[in-house]
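Support reply, case 0932

Customer input (verbatim):
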Amino acid sequence: MRPALSVCVNWGAGYITFSTVMNILIAVCSLLLLAYIFDLTSHFTKIPSVILLLIAGWLVRQACMIFEITMPNLNPLLPVLGTVGLILIVLEGALELKVDKTKLPMIRKSVVVALVPMVVLAFVLGYFFQFIGGYTLKDSLTYALPFCVISSAIAIPTVKTFHSDIRDFVVFETSLSDILGVLFFNFVALNSVITTDSLIDFFKDIAIITILSFVATIILSMLMTRVDHHIKYSPIIIVVILFYGISKIYHLPGLIFIIIFGLLLGNVMEIGKYKPFRKIRYMAIAAEVEKLHEICTEGAFLVRALFFLLFGFLMDTVEIVNPDTIPYALGIVSAIIVIRMIQLLIYKLPLMPLLFIAPRGLITVLLFVAIVPEPTGPFSFKSLVIQVIVLTALVMMLGVMFTPKHLRTKND
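Our regenerated output:
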């Protein structure tokens, strides 16, 4: 029998053996297969896969503690996985959306339903944080905004098998919530003083990224049809992620590029009907877009599963059950539901299941870790974030369970 390899890998301040690397690899592959089973069975169990992923990650942490297994610091991986997951999930949703004149009223409603509750909740929580913590209003709004954004990473997969009207509305609303939430957060966090000049710069940035998005979409769509190589979709996705990363460095709203890119490619057949665009090889582009969509779907599943498994693993039991923040978490979730219910009633949108599909998750974590320095005060914001994410996921699960069967049937 051949002797076992004793290779050691330098990891941070210590070393891990080759066998440990293999054990980690086996564990990760097993958890991803488990995530796939969760995804397959969620339609029957009515339990969103994200809840099961969080529980699985938390159980792995408990097992590591029981068996005294030392793990490297995985915290830096969370924002990386979250950012890539956000890009792929929004791109996947945008590619899937089919836009025509009949859907314009729904799009207008989704914009308002995404924006108004976010602004109202941000100021409600902002004044509350200012009152109990003594923060400035600017800092209070910065701390409040992560709680105001609906997580498309959780909501979109949950409604995959729902009626097409509900599914399209949720994709539009949650994607816009991500985009508007990041815009609002960056505007508040990056401007020490809100002035007319800062507002002008803000709208200038939106105009710049919109123009760049159209140019980049044209170039990338041409590459898809002209590049005759067996590898063409991975470079395009890499370019999309690169574009997003560069835009973030210059404080530009990169998610606008993602949704414009996805919507234009996903609706290239509709665009090709108009006279100025009839010279576009839209039939060839549409065929390539189908393959790109499939790859995005596969990639989004893997990254999303890894993110929530890792997030569950990094959740400390003490933070989950922290009694000091539970009343605040319950209050935030109640405010989310009440404000959302009022908005849905005003626009005569169905309460079931839309009222309950307002989870906080990936984008909440990304915005929270972007706050420097980390907020301090009368309670732990980290515990509050974890509890709000878990509670909104549980509320969504109950909403899905009690949704009438005819609304849970996919109808395209």
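We compared this against your earlier run and they match. Two observations from our side: The mean pLDDT is 85. The longest helix spans residues 282-314. Please reopen the case if you see a mismatch on your end.
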